[in-house]
Specification:
It is a single chain. The protein is α+β, with helices and mostly antiparallel strands. It folds into two domains: 6-59 and 121-182, FAD/NAD(P)-binding domain, CATH 3.50.50; 87-114 and 192-238, 2-Layer Sandwich (D-Amino Acid Oxidase, Chain A, domain 2). 17% of the residues lie in helices and 35% in strands. The chain is built from four helices and 17 strands. It has a six-stranded mixed sheet with strand order 10-4-3-13-12-11. Strands 8-7-15-16-17-14 form a six-stranded mixed sheet, with no helix packed on it. A three-stranded antiparallel sheet has the order 5-9-6. The N and C termini lie far apart (51 Å).
């Protein structure tokens, strides 16, 4: 049976999981990884259900900058910058070394080499792409429990709704709640980096900045212009013993 998603408020495709739904592939997480997997699976002829505990268009601290490789992968999925109102092409990358030397790196002309777009905008557009490819995409659907049998996997969601699939993919982030349910870690994983970010106004530079500073170690500062004077400015700190990441 081919899923039949319906369009919601012109921004995100949404299907409602009625009691028990059976599909070939269930994907937990409707971010870029989950939506990419859904698109590829539907292209291969599988029925797919994507569920996510959040609403469509989620934010993420470390986001908004798309590299050349990311753009080629997104193009393969059918994504174009025109699908996002916040997307803008970047022509020059500025890199500043810890010693203060600054280098301008003009990007090759002909084709997109770098793009900035808010993560929330990108998430919404990828959800729409997954749904238009044939996957059912359901937001605000939290996995309360998961059961593995010889026949497949059953995800228990809100109000007793269930999704049963032959294959389940955990695309719910580095701290994957689904992975914790199936394979509880012996020690907590905090990740390698800790990042802070803020959207600011009055930013007139149309170049993308990456600034390396001595006191940040392996971390760096970034400034991603998003147009209309708005920019994503933040920094990342490498997690290591003896270095506090608390603000």
């Amino acid at each position: 049976m081919t899923p039949s998603p319906r369009k919601l408020t012109g921004e995100a495709y949404l299907s409602h999981v009625d009691q028990t739904r059976e599909v070939d592939v269930a994907i937990v997480g409707a971010g870029p990884a989950g939506c990419a997997a859904a698109i590829e699976a539907t292209r291969a002829g599988y029925t797919v259900e994507v569920v996510d505990k959040a609403s469509a268009g989620r934010d993420k601290t470390c986001g908004d900058g798309l590299t050349t490789e990311a753009l080629r992968l997104l193009e393969h999925l059918g994504w174009q910058p025109e699908q996002c109102s916040t997307a803008r092409q970047i022509d020059t990358v500025m890199v500043r070394a810890p010693g203060g030397r600054t280098v301008a790196l003009p990007l090759p002309v002909g084709g997109l080499q770098a793009v900035t777009v808010t993560r929330a905008d990108l998430d919404r557009s990828l959800g729409e792409l997954a749904a238009s490819a044939g996957a059912a995409v359901t937001y605000d659907w939290t996995v309360a429990d998961v059961a593995v049998t010889t026949d497949g996997v059953t995800l228990l969601g809100p109000d007793g709704d269930k999704v049963t699939a032959s294959i389940v993919l955990a695309a719910d982030g580095a701290w994957s709640p689904l992975r914790k349910k199936l394979c509880p870690p012996k020690t907590p994983h905090l990740g390698a980096m800790h990042a802070y970010r803020q959207y600011v106004t009055g930013f007139t530079d149309d170049r993308l900045w990456v600034i390396f500073q001595q006191d940040l170690g392996a971390g760096y500062v970034w400034a991603f212009p998003l147009g209309n004077g708005i920019a994503n400015i933040g920094f990342g700190i490498h997690r290591q013993p003896g270095v506090s990441t608390k603000g």
